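dude i think i finally got it to work??
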Amino acid sequence: MQDDGTEGTPNHHCNPAPGATPAGRTHPTACLGDFPHIGADANGFYVTTNEFSLFGPGFHASQVYAFSKSDLVRLAPAVTLFQFDTADTPAAGLPGFTLAPAVSAQSFVTAGGGTEYFLSSFAVFTGLDNRLALWSLSNTQALNSGSAPTLSNAIVTVEQYANGPLARQPGSQTNDQTKDWPLGQCIENANCNLFLNGLPFGVPETIGRINGNDSRVHQVTYANGKLWTALNTGIASTTDPSVRVGIAFFVLLPQGTGAATTAKVVQQGYVAVDGASVLFPATAATESGRGMISFTLTGNSDFPSVGYVALDAVVGAGDVHIVKPGAGLQDGFTEYTNIFGGRPRWGDYGAAAVDGNSIWFATEYIAQSCNLATYEAGFGPSFGSCGGTRASLGNWATRIVKLTP
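look at this
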């Protein structure tokens, strides 16, 4: 799917050459569709991306790509596709950022000629906010005849949320040599750093923190006539006044059709743990209205672990449960400042999916730990693998769990 104006998609001029025309531009891959999400209804299959310039000023707007589901199913040689640029229909004067399309396992919205919902947040622009944007792609049945549906949006007032800080893990921002963080310790060791990076000297490092990114919406489920979602937020509490990363969750009831679509807040609240952060929530709910939010939990006393809470439209979120405790520290190259730039990343995604009355979820955590000597492995062919339990530049893992709420 080429997003640069040369294959029939709009030319958003992410980086056009001076005087260039759509038929003859010198940078044919100037736009980058980042952070894709997928969704579907009875009539269409939908992909959303955040469109950035590869070489220009940065973020442009979220894009929505609407494919005819019937064309895809029958393997049509040419599939009906419409692209929507959210900069053309801004929400409260702002383009969409990370439009998360609703996913449904059993039911679709038939009102308005078929409707697919998307949700996005605002604090990525404002820092602190109390609004969500509900985007409605209405008359999706038009895709069956090669015509375009219509995209509109409405603002929903919700509880406050904010961009959060970097999350801590045991020993964060210290040089604690009693702990095992062998990649970082290798960088500090002249012999090991020579083998790893070709540098004949050690470089001081510290145990890193984990990036929870921002307050974008991560995943939306349509079930029991409602939209279920969650996002990360900075949070503090009376029992732990330190600012850390928590989760804000929302259960919304869409009302109306087309451009008149709005949503009522049925349930909302926060998930927070004293002394720890909860990262990258993924939300799903069964058609009977039994939901879950999965996440990574990490803190001063907790290695990155797999956790979840139950979610109910009446009573809200339940207690935090740890499915799989982390076995050690996150020890990936992105967190080490002096060699790799110090931009700690943690996946960007979690995922959850409904299977009848059960919910599957996939969450990142740390499944192994080893010391520097095991990591070095005599500087032989198994260097950096710790006996096949990790890669030399990263040690994260993904846990897949099935639960019945």
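Residues 160-405 form one domain.
im so relieved honestly
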